[in-house]
Amino acid sequence: MPHLDHAGASLFYTLDGPDSAPVLIFSNALGTDHTMWAPQAEALRGQFRILRYDTRGHGRSTLPPGPFTVAGLGGDVLALMDALGIREAAFCGLSMGGLTGMWLGVNAPRRFTRLVLANTAARISTAASWNTRIDGVLRGGMASLVAASVQRWFTPAFASAAGAGLDGLRAVLAGLDARGYAANCAALRDADLREAVGAIPVPVLVIAGSADLSTPPAAGRALADAIAGARYVELEAAHLSSFEQPARFTDALRDFLGAEASAGGDAGRRQESVSVSG
Questions:
Q1: Whole-model pTM?
Q2: Count of structural domains within the chain
């Protein structure tokens, strides 16, 4: 299995699709791994060379010694790109992956053609809530989080209808090292990009879920408003909108990533607000 050793961690990744196709990088949400993107990878692998990876402390990627920040998460992406000879790519991240994408857009914009920031915010939750979650998982282990996480990730109707179809995600979450989960919670607790995201010069699509309690639509709209020319799409879903509405999420990706880059910088970019129902 392919791994890259970087900054004290061993990063697991997969790279699929035509060698000559443009590269699209997917970054997972907290408590998941690269498999959360299976619907999008399957649908888009003929059009893109798709790089998926497990964020440090998740899935098959190990946890580096000591604490880290969202800058470390962004640095992992750049290290993967450098090691694989990827000069530039489009990027799609959800929740924690979205914050990673924001950092990349601010600090390494020349490496990215377009950014998709899904179910995320420039500041997610409060320090107190993150500290409570960190204390809880270090005391009770990952099993203590599974039921509450699934309730946050999906609408009740979808979770009920999906049934055993969510067992894979449950197993990934339950199998994580509690220390890795807690370390990423701490990185999210300390991340505040509200003052920085306005400097992102890369075309951006913000995707929100109408029933997302973790990063509500208002947070998605605020993020889109802060980035000149950003597009905004709202899906009828909760936090893991890519999994709850895979076809509509993928259609939004395909439409945004397939569009020709506009000329003239910000003057040629337009802000869109689209509500997509089930």
A1: 0.92
A2: 1
